[in-house]
Amino acid sequence: MANTLVHILHNECPHCHEGKIFNEKNIFFNIGFPKMNKTCSHCHYQFEKEPGYFFGAMYVNYGLTVAQSIATYVIAQFFFIKAFDLRIIAIIAFVIIAMAPFNIRFSRLLWIYMFKNYSI
Ligand SMILES: [Zn+2]
Known about the structure:
3 helices, mainly alpha, binds zinc ion
């Protein structure tokens, strides 16, 4: 389990752990839409198995965003007198926008690893 998380964070192919999934130097703090390789450069594992395969990664992204929003609220409420200050919403919005490039890539990596073909 810990090894899988290391492979995910290192952007490695789920099959051979040699090739890269994203064709970018720093995958988590890169502005813009992710540039993915279609297949692994080492074992030719196909990352996008069918058209619209990464549609489901949106749900993973949504879960990550909600978790980050709740964590931001829990942390931010200690800095305000009222339990629900409207400025917390602006802080949460900033965190969501700042974390979006990370969440897009991380959710796709999680999606690929959740549905990798274990029989190969
Ligand atoms: Zn591979």
